[in-house]
Amino acid sequence: MVTLTAPEAPAVDVLKETTVDLAASTVRELNQAIHNAEDGQAWTVTNPGGKHSLAVGINAGIAVTIDGHAGYYAAGMHQKGDVTINGNAGVGLAENIMSGTVHVRGDASQSAAATGHGGLVVIDGNAGARCGISMKGVDIVVGGNIGHMSAFMAQAGRLVVCGDAGDALGDSIYEARIYVKGTVASLGADCIEKPLREEHLTELAELLAAAGRTDNPAHFKRYGSARNLYHFSVHNSTSY
Amino acid sequence: MTITSVPLPAEAPQAAPAQNLAAPDIAALGLRESATFDRATIADIQRAAATGVYDIRGWGAKRKVPHFDDLLFLGASMSRYPLEGYREKCDTDVVLGDRHATRPLHLQTPVTIAGMSFGALSANAKEALGRGASEVGTSTTTGDGGMTPEERGQSKHLVYQYLPSRYGMNPDDLRKADAIEIVLGQGAKPGGGGMLLGQKITERVAGMRTLPVGIDQRSASRHPDWTGPDDLEIKIGELREITDWKTPIYVKIGASRPYYDTALAVKSGADVVVLDGMQGGTAATQQVFIENVGIPTLAAIPQAVQALQELGVHRTVQLIVSGGIRTGADVAKAMALGADAVAIGTAALIALGDNDPRYAAEYSALGSAAGFYDDFQDGRDPAGITTQDPELSGRLDPVAAGHRLANYLRVLTMEAQTIARACGKSHLRNLEPEDLVALTIETSAMARVPLAGTSWIPGVQGSF
Ligand SMILES: Cc1cc2nc3c(=O)[nH]c(=O)nc-3n(C[C@H](O)[C@H](O)[C@H](O)COP(=O)(O)O)c2cc1C
Predict the structure, then answer these.
(1) Closest by alpha carbon to B172, among A135, A120, A80, A63?
(2) Nearest CB to B166: which of A31, A91, A96?
(3) The model's pTM
């Protein structure tokens, strides 16, 4: 059983907060407890100690706060509710997120929000390499910089970077849209700068607001697919 | 037991397959074909020169490699007692995934259906695979492109593939799966990603993969959020946490370095290792890749079994072998070498109706012939299997095709039982390397069983 510092909250009591101390409970106990949770509950995880697979597979409208650093795959396959990490997150933060929000107050390692199908991932600090790799509809807002090969084969969704982007941004990108405020070290194959039109300023403003940021949308540049590599052709062989 | 087969309706007359110059004519003319530049090779060069693109095709390796054909069973005799062919029990069931998962699979036959994607295959074909597998109590597997409701609905045991592309991957389907198969590679293309050409991307396929209709879809060759065995261990941990440790987790590898890959899969926490040899089928891969990368199924099995045995987990971590399984003898041989189960892809498609001679005229119109058709990437399959064209896929009745597959699966199982009884085994699992000999020196060395009539295993024991 989970070691609880407060008695189990009744489902209806939205204000009741349950704390799971990972110095005393296992990750298995934590995840099982939140898989059994009911909509509206609030959970706090203390002493996460960089453990892996924290708060994965959440499928109820709950709020989970992790007080400290999380390891690999924090909030993996997130489906509902909100997860906040008051610390840094390891590889594969919110990988394959479907909906809901995941917010990291610190930095995130590589492959943040990889293959995410929906929802919002906010990283206040920097994100490592391959941020938004193969993203399929998720929205990602990064307060700082992102590493190389970010948005590789990005299919759908929006990636907003308030700092700088590393090498090969958006390599082999499909229909995802990328907004970068700072510099881009280099663009990957088939990724080009595109005009920032009114509808883009609007969606960018919405994304920044959702992430709790005050950056000016007009200061960003937009990047996306040139759509030249959508069909395999021998004449493109030097592009890859 | 009598099997009543479901005959194919004979709508089209059976035409003879496309013929090359008949052999006697060649001899009469004194023509000599080059072994190095044979007709297929010449045609490949001509095709490359004309198009400037390498050949992409389906099916598996077509070249001859050492295979199960070069193994023979030693039936029981004075020193071994056979079981009575039609009366004594020879069980065939297998439990997969009981190492860590609380809900392992219990299958009635060790012949399972390999992962083939919706997208590569029509929805009717996927449904037929599910129906056929369920009829005989075995499992079927999704593929690159996600889980369809037709497939889930018709499959008693459904394995959900977790691939680098993560097309259609979602936690609801993950929780609905009876097992999860993390795909590292495929025997047809170890180290390669995938490609679904634009002509097969209908609205439904595109929607499931979150991509525009009609464009080529590339599948990455590496997973986006892990690399190497240490990461894989953490990844497996995450999938177990999401599914509350109920669901067995398989790791599928394409045979190249099976000894190390198997050991690392075990170390990473896999419940089951799926090992696919170079003859294994594919929906669309470069021919040069299919024919030149990876090692034969036969050579791969003993290496994987050795790794399992050295780690003390043979039979605890189950081994599923695929790549060129066609007959009950192949099933029995794979199991005698140490596999717990096998998987079939190409043979299952043939059982559904792939390469059926009744479509001879249509294969010929596509520049192929029944028995040769491998353009799975094109989406114009006359048999309605490797296509998304509604007219073509409508030709495949999932119920009838499912029955044909079930028939075939029963035959494979009974054939394997026939051999096992002759070797005195009351369960297919009890077949062992000691029951086998090899016909050729290379097969003996690869399979690590003696050359027939000798006690010699090159590189292992004895001398000629
Ligand atoms: C049409 C087709 C589609 C396939 N799609 C996949 C796939 O999506 N994922 C995968 O791991 N293997 C895929 N495979 C490979 C099979 O899972 C299996 O490894 C192989 O077919 C076994 O060899 P066999 O065809 O000789 O039986 C596919 C094979 C075929 C023929």
Answers:
(1) A80
(2) A96
(3) 0.93
Q: Write the pLDDT tens digit of every residue in A45-73.
A: 999 999 999 999 999 999 999 999 999 99
Kindly write down the DSSP assignment for every residue of chain A, as one continuous string: ---BSSPPPPTT-TT-EEEEETTTS-HHHHHHHHHS--TT-EEEEE--TT-SSTT-S--SS-EEEEES-B-TTTTTT--SSEEEESS-B-TTTTTT--SSEEEESS-B-SSTTTT--SSEEEESS-B-TTTTTT-EEEEEEESS-B-TTTTTT--EEEEEESS-B-SSBTTT--S-EEEESS-BS-B-TTEEEE---HHHHHHHHHHHHHTT----GGG-EEEEE--SSSS--GGGTTT-
All structural domains of chain A with their residue ranges: 110-213+222-227
Of A57, A59, A156, which has the smallest distance from its Cβ to B241's Cβ?
Answer: A57
- Are A231 and B216 in contact (CB < 8 Å)? yes
Beta-carbon contacts of A11 under 8 Å, excluding residues fewer than 6 positions away, are: A38, A39, A40, A41
Is the distance from CB of A134 to CB of A114 less than 8 angstroms?
yes
Residues of chain B with pLDDT under 70: 1-24, 463-464
How far apart are the C-alpha atoms of B331 and B349, rounded to whole Å?
Answer: 17
- The pLDDT value given to residue B24: 66
- By CB neighbour count within 10 A (0-12 exposed, 13-18 middle, 19+ buried), where does B30 fall? exposed
Helix (H, G, I), strand (E, B) or coil at B330: helix
Q: Which residues of B touch A73 (CB under 8 A)?
A: 225, 234-235, 238
ipTM of the complex: 0.92
Helix boundaries (H) for B10-74? 23-29, 39-51
**Cα–Cα distance between A1 and A52 in angstroms, integer?**
19
Residue A91 in contact with partner chain B when CB distance is under 8 A: yes
A237 — pLDDT class (breaks 50, 70, 90): low
Give me the residue spans of the domains in chain B. 1-53, 68-431
- Say if residue B264 is exposed, middle or buried (CB neighbours under 10 Å; 0-12, 13-18, 19+): buried
* B237 to A53: CB separation less than 8 angstroms, yes or no: yes
For B256-294, the pLDDT digits (tens) are: 999 999 999 999 999 999 999 999 999 999 999 999 999
In chain A, whose CA is at the least distance from the CA of B168? A117
**By three-state DSSP, how is residue B112 classified?**
strand
CB contacts, 8 Å: B51 with chain A: 234
> What's domain B68-431's superfamily in CATH?
Aldolase class I (3.20.20.70)
| Residue of B160, B225, B230, B268 to mutate, interface with A, max A Cβ within 10 Å | B225
Read off the pLDDT of residues A122-135 as tens digits, 9 standing for 90 and up. 999 999 999 999 99
Tell me the chain A residues in contact with residue B244 when contact means C-beta distances shorter than 8 Å: 31-32, 35
A115 residue type, one letter: T
- pLDDT of A240: 55
pLDDT score recorded for residue A7:
41
pLDDT in the model for residue A11: 47
Look over chain A and give the mean of its residue pLDDT values, rounded to a whole number: 93
Ligand 1 atom with minimal separation from the B324 CA: 26
Q: How many other C-beta atoms lie within 10 A of the C-beta of residue B44?
A: 16
Task: Quote the percentage of chain A above a pLDDT of 90.
Answer: 88
A-chain CB neighbours of B245 within 8 Å are 28
| Ligand 1 site, CB within 6 A | B 58, 60, 114-117, 120-121, 143-144, 161, 183, 186-187, 252, 276, 279-283, 322-325, 344-347, 376, 386
Q: Dihedral of the CA atoms A145, A49, A29, B169 (nearest 10)?
A: 20
Residue B21 has a pLDDT of 57
Let me know if B273 is exposed, middle or buried by CB neighbors in 10 A (0-12, 13-18, 19+). buried
Residue A235's pLDDT is what?
A: 61
